Amino acid sequence: xxxxxxxxxxxxxxxxxxxxxxxxxxxxxxxxxxxxxxxxxxxxxxxxxxxxxxxxxxxxxxxxxxxxxxxxxxxxxxxxxxxxxxxxxxxxxxxxxxxxxxxxxxxxxxxxxxxxxxxxxxxxxxxxxxxxxxxxxxxxxxxxxxxxxxxxxxxxxxxxxxxxxxxxxxxxxxxxxxxxxxxxxxxxxxxxxxxxxxxxxxxxxxxxxxxxxxxxxxxxxxxxxxxxxxxxxxxxxxxxxxxxxxxxxxxxxxxxxxxxxxxxxxxxxxxxxxxxxxxxxxxxxxxxxxxxxxxxxxxxxxxxxxxxxxxxxxxxxxxxxxxxxxxxxxxxxxxxxxxxxxxxxxxxxxxxxxxxxxxxxxxxxxxxxxxxxxxxxxxxxxxxxxxxxxxxxxxxxxxxxxxxxxxxxxxxxxxxxxxxxxxxxxxxxxxxxxxxxxxxxxxxxxxxxxxxxxxxxxxxxxxxxxxxxxxxxxxxxxxxxxxxxxxxxxxxxxxxxxxxxxxxxxxxxxxxxxxxxxxxxxxxxxxxxxxxxxxxxxxxxxxxxxxxxxxxxxxxxxxxxxxxxxxxxxxxxxxxxxxxxxxxxxxxxxxxxxxxxxxxxxxxxxxxxxxxxxxxxxxxxxxxxxxxxxxxxxxxxxxxxxxxxxxxxxxxxxxxxxxxxxxxxxxxxxxxxxxxxxxxxxxxxxxxxxxxxxxxxxxxxxxxxxxxxxxxxxxxxxxxxxxxxxxxxxxxxxxxxxxxxxxxxxxxxxxxxxxxxxxxxxxxxxxxxxxxxxxxxxxxxxxxxxxxxxxxxxxxxxxxxxxxxxxxxxxxxxxxxxxxxxxxxxxxxxxxxxxxxxxxxxxxxxxxxxxxxxxxxxxxxxxxxxxxxxxxxxxxxxxxxxxxxx
Length: 886
Hints:
It is a single chain. Helix 1 (about 5-25) crosses helix 9. The protein is α/β, with parallel strands linked by helices. The chain has an 8-stranded mixed beta barrel, surrounded by 4 helices. Strands 1, 3, 4, 6, 8, 9 and 11 form a 7-stranded mixed β-sheet that branches. Strands 15-16-14-19-20 form a 5-stranded mixed β-sheet, with helices on both faces. It is built from 26 helices and 29 strands. Strand 8 (about 120-130) and strand 9 (about 135-140) form a beta hairpin. The chain folds into 4 domains: about 30-200, Immunoglobulin-like, CATH 2.60.40.2380; about 230-410; about 450-595, Alpha-Beta Plaits (2-Layer Sandwich); about 605-885, TIM Barrel (Alpha-Beta Barrel).
């Protein structure tokens, strides 16, 4: 097909589309009339405007080649069927209209003929006298510069000064750039009536445009603050509607681009397309259409948007009519989106309650506008009323909907913040409870040993004089035999309350063991300490009723004074315990520490001296305690526990020599021995068919070893053991010594493939929120929470919460110190992963461990590794109460 034929077919298709639109708008065909002269219009009583169409005659001009003289001689003039000038669509064609005016009065009249539209490409005016003389000519239109207009007004008008007792004939030639004609009013006013009517209409339009501009500016500011896409699309829609209305009404051509008629036409057509598309885009985004419709429907809407936007391409090349045709696709897009929103409205979508009436108002406004200009409805006085009201309702309803959506979003955000705050408070409460449990004795509510030691250490560091009273209850076992353990607990609780009431401000009371208490009295000398000890004895001796039995408690008290009797908190506590033991042999049961009662000091010096060479002398031993997966009972790993067999003092407890090693700086050599021995043992067991991992405990001092990571890597590589088979356990107190430094070292260790476990959790100050930031895979609940665990115990809350929150953080939970089958079953019901303790097996030598595995048939051995508790820990910290008990 050649280009000319293709262009003609395209224009013909456009013609059919426009004729269809015209029919829907209420248009009708022209009526043929005789060539009789049109009736003469008298200009009296035209102040309010007079429709000229019934008095006018129109003439088609095929090809648009007819001049004024030819039009005057033509015989094919026709009448108009309506009060509007209504022309069909035909390419390469112009139309003529004529009307005769007479002024029978004795005064000259100033009249204005108004076409009521700014959208006509070419308008040629001719005013002729009865003898054919041309009195006035003017060529204007929206395809010509605004300066061609005789009256600088947005609509196409002809002002004329009609002399008294004169008759003139006005000829009007209407031409088009690309074959598009529209219906238009054809009215006659005097000057006063014209400017009164047009002023009211212009003021109304100005208020409408000002409102749109203010609304667009406000929402633009909202968008700049919130960066919400729906708000940005709404602003674009408002700007498109505003630009379209300003251009279509002729304000843009009059005030903004009077010398650019091509731009004026492009702005009119382009803004209409953009208004359709941006409005649809906003609604699609606002109602979240993708959540409610199928993929096929979304694709149809997207294709319609792309097709409508394609109308901007011919517009760029001056094809105004083609662009207007594409706007019909945009209109179809609006209809499709509206019908989808109606569907969403019936589905109960909240946003559709705003979009459906908004689009309905706009559709009704357009329908009323076309019904009025098609004369199916009586004129309203202002032809702009329906569109202004409809557009205003549409943009305001969409604005209300947008505000509602933002308010809903804000409420959802506030609700989420409230939930987060409640969760944070709940977590803080759990952590406070855990912290309180870690620092307080569960039975009496007094401080525990660790908290008392810290308080005393702080006082010693400050150099503050302190009296330390170590209280031991006499024969408390007899009380338990008399009233039972429950009654004994009641007695201890009552003693704790009495001790608290006896404390002056600043003094501290703590429970050390089942029948031992500690009192710390700052700024107290020996004499006052003895008086306080006597007062406490008398307070404890007051009988209390338990199960119908009067219980009176006698206690012995050992006293030391800082800095007279010792210079360190450790020595103070140790010497206070010695004094308390000595007090048992005295009548008053009160003893101040006596110098020379310090044989343990010499023992301590000897142990520190020999500890540095214990590894090379072969005095260290490793015992292995099995760790099983609770759910299946299978062996998953072992914990290596260090023991020291001293040639003089015999077997030394880790609780004694580990602190000495940390104080003397001997931990590095000891830790390296433990790691090397554990790796060697894993290799030996693997060769024998027992492939399990081991875990090694490291202390806070080990975290300061710059070669720790390198040593671990070299040891594993030399033995051919995967890094994931070795787990390094570090107590939470060691982590909290220097949290940032600890996290950096642990991250480097984890990067090497070694597994990381937190030991003794719950006895320090760390929290799960802090552990979340550490590269750990396992968490071990301290045995102080496990030993006496029951469904109704207070420890159950901490253990269950710790298990649940640890699992939420992706951590494996290990319970140590499990000493009964009932405790093991309870932990399993709570979802605890791994357990170790006497209920499973005591720490065993390597050979005994192998026999234990063999007796279980070997089938219970799991080859799992990693953070599920499969790699144990070498007891190198000395803080592991399980290893100490074992």
